[in-house]
């Protein structure tokens, strides 16, 4: 350990390392009772940090399972959610999963008059409690309802194929394609929607190739369009020329796609998301019914509508797609439709060009006809529209879209994350959503948070790691997934949806959730300030289906640098250059623009890149060679080649790496990291990690008055290291989002690379390092004396609080997990355990310069400490330690530690049976762990284990030279 870090251990720098035996080395936040420990010029920032405003407080999904509502209980439930720190509700009408016998009774149909009466009551109660309301537009998802007609429902393109030997007079009905069995049908069993799109004839050569499963057509010009020779009944009359012909019939029909988990009386067809008319009609119908019941929507707590993630299955189409294709791409796609049936036309290159155009059209149409149209319709009604418009994409869901463009088309952006997923999992949709917010000028990055299947398995600290990772990728507003309406008749743990981390008032640790909720709110507030700081902007290309992977997955400048990803729309319409840096209208700036590692590019994009370089931009990437797409491709290829020659000059990426043009340059063949360092721009955040022992992550925002860094410890063990922030002329402070306190960082130095300082973090710990423009403090720093550590030997009195609690109290000489007890009622207990003892405090521990903390050692899941009958605080994360100085008195003090676990242990016990009377009742019958039932899941160690200690330190003022 170097001297710099040793100094930090003793300094009043917000994080103190207590000198205790090595096995118990933990971290303690220095407690600050007022903000006077820092010179708070930005008092509004600190006030918002201490008490986050409404826009930073977490929301939660609020599910009316089966459409059922107990109106008499609703206000109590919402009040409890409000009091624990929830700021808003995203209301879903939702069907239940699992044991149907354990689900609530069926409520009224979504948007029916009785349903609207219930919803109006919810809005009224939420408004009186100060909660904002958002409404998901369907019962479950995707968009759809009982009132959606087949003509407005999800569509696909189907085809049949026959062979005709010519010459011949063909005069017969073409076979009908097989339409899904669940597609809407008339009284005779025929599909209601069966619309002819095209009938094409061609001669194809069949070769064995994975790229040509159906065969190769010599040219699109050889395809004969027979559509006008087919009657409404599908009867074709055609004089077939000599040769062997294939006749393809393309038909539009419903997919039969329905709502995913609709409540019993609300199931219906999913809408045609590629039809602007269907989208507008749906949203207009919804908002008109809401307006009739609630009045002017602008005057109600209902702020917005919500579209969940796009999960329509299959190959989508729409009735006027051929016309839309002409509009977007400028040519008729009809003779190229055999590509959809698996044929190659002319060669693989030409075929891929058409696929590019088709995908682009589908992506553009989904953005315009669905997201943009829904947003415009909601806005006319006085509402905003929020959506998970960017995925999750393939391979999880078939989302045919440019994700960033889709997110840019709506009012508020949302992604999602699943806590227990691998680093590069498609269900981690955070960086993409954050990039969209940054490049389109949206302030908040909403995130469906804590989605998963591990029911009642997690306490707050189990969730912190994933929340902090999402914060470092750009999340700055939590939408908790999920809270379901749980009146008393639901039982315990009650009615819940089939996924999510449940946040309901009958959750055992719910009453102790406030500090964790405030942690999420404070972190969100700080990360909503100013602008995101990034050095690099990656252009991810213009192909139709495009998504952004998690942070540092795929293309990335690497640790210490951050970045955004942009699309063609933003590059073309919003990006300029100022003082050699790329700039967006909202103030975002980047040092370099990086082109995709592809040979094809949109000529209009390349023209804009040329313009940016001339104006002073630095662009990095390989030299484009062709235009993407089929339309007028020969001319567009020439344009690309001509512009690329001007842009790159002699730069070939092998012997010549840079070409200057105008005020800027293009670079090819060097890494982004090398380029940034060569320009004197070192990493924004660096840390020392001997032998890989330290792994930190960060995000940086700047609001003009402060540089705000959020730093997290990735590892599940305490770390101490030196860190460097690329900041000049500003002084560091440490702000703790868990407590709302702030202290000066009294040990630091300004180096050529930035401000260097020691930092210590607990396992999965996190902190804000805030830099502001002020004079460094000249006063001598305060340091802690060597701590006095006293173990509380007991005996402890342990009692259990629940209607089904084991016999208590019981006396313990040694603290052990409840799951280690032989008594099954204790081993599988879910509820509150109260530990009580008396501790004698020496008089010399309670001076003005002394601090006394209680250290719980090992604990799960949440604990609240009471001293002499008064609450002293809640502990939910390591170090499981709390300052109790103010509550103590000389002599004997009664200490009570109340520990709450979760419902999972008793569910396991009930599943095992063995004479234990069942206590739990819920519709969820699966554990969430694949191939493992509840009875095969080990109970989670709960309560306290090991030594509980009191730790006293003395605050000393010392001269800097004595350090």
Beta-strand content estimate: 25-35%
Summed up, the helix count is: 17
Find the structural class using helix and strand composition. Answer: alpha/beta
Name the overall outline.
globular
Which properties best describe this structure?
alpha/beta, six-stranded antiparallel beta sheet, 963 residues, disordered C terminus, eight-stranded parallel beta barrel
Describe this structure in a few short sentences.
The protein is α/β, with parallel strands linked by helices. Helix 3 (71-84) packs parallel to helix 4 (113-129).
Describe it for me?
With 963 residues, this protein is α/β, with parallel strands linked by helices. Helices cover 21% and strands 29% of the residues. It has 17 helices and 56 strands. The strands form 14 sheets. Strands 3-4-5-14-17-18-19-20 form an eight-stranded parallel barrel, surrounded by four helices. Strands 22-35-36-42-38-39 form a six-stranded antiparallel beta sheet, covered by helices on one side. β18, α9 (431-440) and β19 form a beta-alpha-beta unit. α5 (276-294) packs parallel to α7 (348-380). The chain is globular and about 110 Å long. 51% of the residues are buried. Mean pLDDT is 91; it is low at 1-42 and 958-963.
Which helices and strands occur, and which strands form pairs?
Elements: H1 3-10, E1 15-17, E2 27-29, H2 43-50, E3 59-65, H3 71-84, E4 88-94, H4 113-129, E5 132-139, E6 144-145, E7 155-173, E8 194-202, E9 204-205, E10 216-217, E11 224-225, E12 235-254, E13 269-270, H5 276-294, E14 302-307, E15 316-317, H6 321-329, E16 344-345, H7 348-380, E17 384-387, H8 403-408, E18 412-416, H9 431-440, E19 445-449, H10 460-473, E20 477-484, E21 493-494, H11 514-527, E22 531-532, E23 536-539, E24 563-566, H12 568-573, E25 576-578, E26 581-583, E27 589-590, E28 592-594, E29 600-601, H13 603-614, E30 618-620, E31 626-627, H14 633-648, E32 658-661, E33 664-667, H15 672-678, E34 685-687, E35 696-702, E36 706-713, E37 719-725, E38 731-736, E39 741-744, E40 749-751, E41 754-761, E42 766-772, E43 782-784, E44 788-791, E45 796-801, E46 810-812, H16 824-827, E47 832-841, E48 850-855, E49 858-860, E50 862-867, E51 870-875, E52 881-883, E53 891-900, H17 904-912, E54 921-922, E55 943-945, E56 949-957
Parallel strand pairs: 3-4, 3-20, 4-5, 5-14, 10-16, 14-17, 17-18, 18-19, 19-20, 21-54, 23-24, 23-28, 28-30, 29-31, 30-33
Antiparallel strand pairs: 1-2, 6-13, 7-12, 7-15, 8-11, 8-12, 9-10, 22-35, 25-26, 26-27, 32-33, 34-37, 35-36, 36-42, 37-41, 38-39, 38-42, 40-41, 43-56, 44-56, 45-46, 45-47, 47-53, 48-52, 48-56, 49-55, 50-51, 50-53
Helix pairs in contact: 2-11, 3-4, 5-7, 6-7, 10-11, 13-14
